[in-house]
Amino acid sequence: EQLGSLGALVCDMEAETITASDPGILENLKLCPALTGAQQDALNAVVLSGGTAYGDPLSWDLQTLQNLGPLLLALNQTTLSLVAKAVREAFGRSIAAAYS
Predict the structure, then answer these.
(1) Smallest Cα–Cα separation from 91: which of 66, 71, 57?
(2) Which residues contact 87 (CB under 8 A, 6 or more apart)?
(3) Where are the transmembrane segments (predicted)?
(4) Average pLDDT, the chain
């Protein structure tokens, strides 16, 4: 409930606050035009906890990657490597198709 009222103010949060917050904070982080390196690390920690609406990266499918939206750009190689190769490839094809 409080996250909804915070909106894009989460863009100024320290990494420690992000990791200590409810996993729903990810939806607010989508509003941020850019995240610092520390915020990106915190985002990855939250995602890797598996307690988000997106679940464990091992279970992600094409729809999950699409739902992550701009957060996908902040995911590190460790997190992305957990996503099945076929899913990553399908996502790449969907991006290419959208821009062709």
Answers:
(1) 66
(2) 60, 61, 62, 65
(3) none
(4) 92
Quick check: 36 pLDDT over 90? yes
Token readout for 62 is: 């094409």
How many residues are listed for the chain in this entry? 100
Instruction: Tell me which residue of 57, 51, 52, 46 sits closest to 80, measured CA to CA.
Output: 57
- Report the alpha-carbon distance of residue 98 to residue 18 in Å, rounded: 32
For 35, residues 6+ apart whose C-beta sits below 8 A from its C-beta are: 11, 29, 43, 74
Q: What is the pLDDT of residue 10?
A: 87
Other C-beta atoms lying within 10 Å of the C-beta of residue 9:
12
Q: Band the pLDDT of 96: cuts 50, 70, 90.
A: very high
Instruction: Indicate whether 81 pLDDT > 60.
Output: yes
DSSP-assigned letters across all residues of 20-82: HS-TTHHHHHTT-S---HHHHHHHHHHHHTT-STT--GGG--HHHHHHHGGGGGG--HHHHHT
